[in-house]
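Quiz preparation item.
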């Protein structure tokens, strides 16, 4: 083979190798979807009742699941990385009480439908570990049937008459001047998260009969709100968490 022939064969070989290298490089750079993958996960969600934790969630692929937790709450958070969902204020029509998340989305108890009360479910086991009955709507506190006949703090259903003062007259409390959370810990700032959280409690009730400007709840209770208009003078409405419900606290 003469020198010219060798040169041609060698050049052709190098061209093929270079082309192959180029093809490998392109294949590697476009393979992100293949390496990362996307599992479909099993979809579905469930929501429980009145544990002092709020809803926690996890996702696998495109599926998701959610459920209530116990005293400390997966959504409670003590650092910025563990804040969970950020609560918002729910200013509904008067008498329509926000009752937390469900499998189908948020549950609103609508006064016009005869069920303006929210009922946070009690623990089926009578302990903070749950599981909890799902929340429901009722015409009044006596209609909350989603609790266990248990003398402890976790078994009974928890009636919620209001998220704001405007809910009170339509739900039968004419002249009410405060919406009050009873027997709960003082709503405190969750460090690094920008919202407050309260634990415990056995009811949210309407108080006052005189009408007029908002008044302070009874000793040991906390003013619940959906805007600053629900708060006594000198306080503002801060979004917060309590059990499964996102509500506001006057502070």
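Solution:
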């Amino acid at each position: 083979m003469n020198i010219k022939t060798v040169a041609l064969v060698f050049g052709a070989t190098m061209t093929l190798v270079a082309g192959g290298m180029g093809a490998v490089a392109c294949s590697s750079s476009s393979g992100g979807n293949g390496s990362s993958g996307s599992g479909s996960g099993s979809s579905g969600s469930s929501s429980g009742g009145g544990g002092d934790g709020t809803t926690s969630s996890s996702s696998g692929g495109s599926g998701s699941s959610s459920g209530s937790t116990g005293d400390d709450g997966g959504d409670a958070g003590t650092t910025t990385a563990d804040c969970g969902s950020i609560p918002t204020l729910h200013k509904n029509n008067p008498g329509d009480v926000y009752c937390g998340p469900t499998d189908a989305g948020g549950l609103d108890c609508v006064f016009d439908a005869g069920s303006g009360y929210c009922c946070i479910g009690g623990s089926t086991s009578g302990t903070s570990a749950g599981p909890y009955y799902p929340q429901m709507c009722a015409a009044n506190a006596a209609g909350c049937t989603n609790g266990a006949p248990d003398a402890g703090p976790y078994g009974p259903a928890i009636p919620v008459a209001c998220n704001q003062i405007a809910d009170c007259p339509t739900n039968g409390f004419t002249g009410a001047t405060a919406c009050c959370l009873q027997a709960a810990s003082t709503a405190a700032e969750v460090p690094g998260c920008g919202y407050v959280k309260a634990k415990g409690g056995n009811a949210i009730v309407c108080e006052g009969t005189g009408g007029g400007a908002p008044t302070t709840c009874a000793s040991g209770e906390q003013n619940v709100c959906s805007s600053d208009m629900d708060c006594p003078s000198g306080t503002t409405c801060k979004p917060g968490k309590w059990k499964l419900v996102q509500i506001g606290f006057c502070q």
